[in-house]
């Protein structure tokens, strides 16, 4: 089967790779660097397993910037382009998805167009009516950053927002490319599939926010957060997973998806979804106040990335902490190997790690590493369990 995948981010590239084990896949991106890397069987992303898979597996995969050529003859066209949240419209910016749909329909009107990008509830029904087509469907992804290929090979579930033979065929293609067996497959209505994605991420954000607020309570009262969390987690209904406090939930998905879900509640009574969104701001305000109370001359920022193994600091909660400290007039230094500039958000970037540690009065770290052990007395973190 011939498959076209548009977008070579974590979602698109992982999808392209697993499908290319058994199908002819042409991946499309507007970034010539990404296209060149994939063509050379190198990963342009920070996912070690993905890099190994590209270099070592026998894949029927090509990459190009030519959408027309890629779409020609494709049975399925997958869209994995960004849908950032737009505060002005209070909604996802779906323009890139809409552009690809319109282009793909013109180039190959018979192909099934499967949206893998996150979209608002009701988007598929809207675009079908607007373009007078039934060729568009949605299949949400549930991939973690820096573990995208692993989660594609071992999916928790496969959801396709259409109850049809072509939806079943697409689900089977994903199952065929996976390494796990007996994967739960759900064929749902379009809006239900869209809601599954948003509510899944809202629940994860809620869990992060819950343990962060538990930690804020313990920190304010001089209590041991770890003891409380361990005691709570022994209840099998709660469990001891996804419970490590942090500076806040961040990354590309959770902040924008919770805001989109809140916007979707405009005519539905709710309290919890708004609280999830607002909890992140409250947590960051609280931690910035705690850091300021230490009266540091200079605060060192150890890494901007949200979690271990990531090469992406976009929407990291560390950035929000930095903004709050900057507003308080606190001098900051940054140690982040991913940065090439001399300054970042007004803070001086220090490449020499030893100098960074010596110059910092307080070092804040969303996640602690062994490299900070010799300056543990300087470190401010809420990383209790040493894991993401």
UniProtKB/TrEMBL annotation:
Keywords: NAD, Oxidoreductase. It catalyses: UDP-alpha-D-glucose + 2 NAD(+) + H2O = UDP-alpha-D-glucuronate + 2 NADH + 3 H(+). Residues 300-387 form the UDP-glucose/GDP-mannose dehydrogenase C-terminal domain. The lineage of its organism: Bacteria, Pseudomonadati, Pseudomonadota, Alphaproteobacteria, Rhodobacterales. SMART domains: UDPG_MGDP_dh_C (SM00984). This is UDP-glucose 6-dehydrogenase. It comes from Albidovulum marisflavi. Belongs to the UDP-glucose/GDP-mannose dehydrogenase family. Its EC number is 1.1.1.22. Pathway: Nucleotide-sugar biosynthesis; UDP-alpha-D-glucuronate biosynthesis; UDP-alpha-D-glucuronate from UDP-alpha-D-glucose: step 1/1. InterPro entries: 6-PGluconate_DH-like_C_sf (IPR008927), 6PGD_dom2 (IPR013328), NAD(P)-bd_dom_sf (IPR036291), UDP-Glc/GDP-Man (IPR017476), UDP-Glc/GDP-Man_DH_C (IPR014027), UDP-Glc/GDP-Man_DH_C_sf (IPR036220), UDP-Glc/GDP-Man_DH_dimer (IPR014026), UDP-Glc/GDP-Man_DH_N (IPR001732). It comes from the Bacteria.
């Amino acid at each position: 089967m011939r498959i076209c995948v548009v977008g070579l981010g974590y979602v698109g590239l992982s999808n392209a790779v697993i499908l290319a084990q058994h199908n002819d896949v042409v991946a499309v991106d507007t970034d010539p660097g990404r296209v060149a890397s994939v063509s050379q069987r190198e990963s342009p992303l920070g996912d070690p397993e993905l890099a190994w898979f590209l270099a070592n597996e026998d894949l029927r995969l090509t990459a190009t910037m030519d959408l027309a050529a890629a779409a020609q003859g494709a049975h399925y066209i997958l869209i994995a382009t960004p849908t950032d949240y737009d505060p002005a419209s209070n909604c996802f910016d779906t323009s890139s998805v809409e552009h690809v749909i319109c282009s793909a329909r013109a180039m190959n009107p018979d192909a099934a167009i499967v949206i893998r990008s996150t979209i608002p509830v009701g988007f598929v029904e809207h675009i079908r009516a607007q373009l007078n087509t039934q060729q568009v469907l949605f299949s949400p992804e549930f991939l973690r950053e820096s573990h995208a290929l692993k989660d594609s090979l071992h999916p928790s579930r496969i959801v396709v927002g259409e109850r049809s033979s072509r939806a079943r065929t697409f689900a089977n293609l994903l199952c065929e490319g996976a390494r796990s067996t007996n994967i739960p497959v759900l064929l749902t209505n379009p809006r239900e599939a869209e809601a599954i994605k948003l509510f899944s991420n809202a629940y994860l954000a809620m869990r992060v926010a819950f343990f962060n607020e538990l930690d804020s309570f313990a920190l304010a009262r001089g209590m041991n957060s770890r003891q409380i969390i361990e005691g709570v987690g022994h209840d099998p209904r709660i469990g001891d997973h996804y419970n490590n406090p942090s500076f806040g939930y961040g990354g590309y998905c959770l902040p924008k998806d919770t805001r989109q879900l809140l916007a979707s509640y405009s005519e539905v009574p709710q309290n919890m979804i708004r609280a999830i969104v607002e909890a992140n701001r409250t947590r960051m305000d609280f931690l910035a106040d705690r850091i300021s109370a230490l009266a540091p001359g200079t605060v060192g920022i150890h890494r901007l990335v949200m979690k271990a193994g990531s090469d992406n600091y976009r929407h990291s909660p560390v950035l929000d902490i930095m903004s709050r400290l900057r507003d308080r007039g606190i001098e900051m230094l940054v140690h982040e190997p991913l940065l090439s500039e001399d300054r970042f958000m007004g803070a001086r970037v220090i490449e020499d790690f030893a100098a960074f540690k010596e110059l910092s009065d307080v070092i804040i770290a969303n996640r602690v590493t062994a490299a900070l052990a010799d300056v543990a007395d300087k470190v401010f973190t809420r990383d209790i369990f040493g894991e993401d």
